[in-house]
Every structure is written in structure tokens, then in C-alpha cells.
Known about the structure:
32% of the residues lie in helices and 28% in strands. It is α+β, with helices and mostly antiparallel strands. The chain folds into two domains: 4-291, L-amino peptidase D-ALA esterase/amidase, CATH 3.60.70.12; 299-418, Ubiquitin-like (UB roll) (Roll). Strand 6 (174-182) and strand 7 form a beta hairpin. The longest helix has 24 residues, at 268-291. The radius of gyration is 22 Å and the shape is globular.
Amino acid sequence: MTAAPQKSAAQNSASEFSIPEDAIPMGFRFAATRVGIKPSGRPDMACALADQPATAVAMFTSNRVVAAPVVVGREHLQTTSGSVRVVIVNAGNANCATGAEGIAACTSVCKAAAEQFSCALQEVFPSSTGIIGVPLPAEKLISAMPEIASRLGSTAAHLQQFAEAILTTDTRAKIAFARLMVNGAPVRLFGVAKGAGMIYPQLMPHATMLVYLFTDARIPTADLPSLLHGAVEDTFNCISIDGDTSTNDTVLLLASGVSGVALTPANASDMQAFAAALQQVCASLARQIIDDGEGVGHVVELRIEEAASRADALRVARSIAHSPLVKTAWAGCDPNWGRILAAIGYSSVAIEPSRISIRIGGHLVCLNGGRAPGMDANQVHAAMLERNFQVRVTLGMGSASCNFLTSDLTAEYVRVNAEYST
Length: 422
């Protein structure tokens, strides 16, 4: 019997909706507290506890400079063959470029969590986000272990606290969920994310953006990588705010199995339904990240069509998305299609300029590599006044395509990042 979607939802602000209690995956508890890492004094330590070891898989940043928690988290997953009891996250300090002391600090936090929750050291998965190059005050996190343990709970309020404590320059929590019925039994999938700047994840299988995905389905560890990789490729790996790949980016998928519903390749239709739900949740979180980007005024969907290969389509999309001239034109609602054409040209993709057409907000602005006859700049400008609009590029080189989500570049983005460490 196939799995059927029952209900799903995705929101990006705690003020816009309340998390339904029956959307929270069983077998997990959540908590958050303040330890004094964030200068703002806001909650900056979060914990997710699996009542029993959860099967797990993670994807991490492709940046060759990696933070201590990425090193430690990867090692722990390898040692346990994908088993996690505790997730410990701190915000306000990335614990990156901190040398051997950073590894030691991260390990000491994991050790304290293991002792607090009576599990193996390697069953603790650490994450950090914040400023690079500053020693992690591990003692603050360690001393808060008893308190955060006492705060654990499985209600919507507890999960909301977790989602808010992991934020840095974000203005709101990112939350998405889906529910499935499999053979008459409910399966829940919940995703929490943070990220507003330094967003161009390019995750590798072994993302600053942090994403935690929880499900109460029972999924063998061996089957988790293909599920996560499939969901990430067209979502988190197809977004960019500023073209900077963080040192800490992480996407973690945990399956508690408490629902009793087993998903295996032998039940292909059920697995496909879960994969579709996972894709939906990741797509929602990815869009929420872009929408809450630092100083973002416009969310732009790049649709690249008729490329020779998907790799070419992605390369063109990234070239456009990372052009400061293009992004500032979007910020000013300026229909300067010539900047887009130039970015396509230096993308290193083999093209024929005379085959290229470009549409902005549905309006044809470029045809056969030149200004489209009858283009009305005022109409295009009006379309670009909307917060969300599409830029559609047709290359005329093949049948491959991609969708890529990005943003404009505003003076507010410059202000936020010019003052970040001070």
C-alpha cells in the first residue's frame, strides 16, 4: 500500500503560525537556553535529544576550511556508523580557525553532553555558528548542560525554542513540516534551519547554514544517504545569497523509528512518498533562508532552460546569481538585462549568444542575444518592484534545465556585514 500525503505546511515566522503538536516527530525532545555567547543575550545554546539512538546521516560544507564541529561531527558519525543520541548547537561562535584548541573545546562539550545524557561520546553531534576565529567558551556550554537537560520537552514550544536559539543574523526561525500516512499509520517529518548570510552551501556527502531534519519513521542508516542527497541537490545546493560557502554548513537527518513505520527500498512507493515529503520540507527551508537573507529586498528565481547539460545550467545560474552588478540592478529594480547576458558569457559554459533569450518577470527583454523588439522598460521595472520575481534564461543549446533561488544585493547587506564582528 502506498504512502499518501496527509497534510503538510511550511512557515517562516513564529508569529505567523503555531506549530501543530501532532506535527512533531515522536522520539525527540528539544530545549534551549542562554549561556552568554551572543552579545545580544538571546538564547544561544540548543539541544535535541533522541530518547533512543536515532539513525543519522549528514552532509557538510565543501569549503576546505572547516570548523571544529564539522571535523568532530563527521568523525562521530563515522565511528558510530550513523547513530546519534544528542545534538548540541551553539550560536554566536563558529569555533572555526581555532586550531587544536577548537577541536579540544568541541570534544569537551560533547563529553559533557555524553555524561549528562548517559550516552557514548561519539553519539553526540555538535554544531556551531557565528563569528570565525574566536575561541569557543566551552565552559559556558558545559556548565549549562544540567539546565538544558532540565528544560527538555517534546511540545511545540520546546521545538520553537530550539529553532530560535540557533539563529545569528536571522530575523526569524525557519520551520517546515510534512505528515504522511503509510499503511494507515502516521509518519512525521520536521525541519528546522538557520541562515541569512554566507549562503552558498554546496554540500558534500561525508552546509553559515544549519539544517536539522527529524522524522519518526524507521529508516536503516544505509538508506538515509540517498534520501538526503536527493533532497539537498535541488534545494540547498541550488540557493545562494552572496556566493560565500560557509565553514560550518551542515544538514543532518535523524530518524527515531518511534512511529513503528519502517521505510525500506523493498517498499518503493512508501520510500518515494517519504522522499517527496523530504524534498518539500527542504525546498521550503531553502526558500525561507533566501527570503530572510541579510538585507534582501528581492527573492529571485533563476530558471535556466535549454542548456547542453544540467551542470551547464547550474554554472550559468551561479554566474548570474553571484554577479554584484546583476544583484545591485535587481536591488534597484533596474531591467539591465545586459548585465545578465554578460554574466552568462563569462560563466565558462559553451554558448551561442545569438541563441539566448531572457525574460524578467515574464517580460521578454532579450531575444537572439539582443534587445527584444518592443521591450517596455517601465513594464519590466514595475514587475521587478515585486519582492518575488523570475528571471528566465533560454540558452538554445540543449534540453537541460535548472531552478536556482537567489537574492539581490542591497546597502543593508553591506552594512550588516561591514559591522558583523564589531
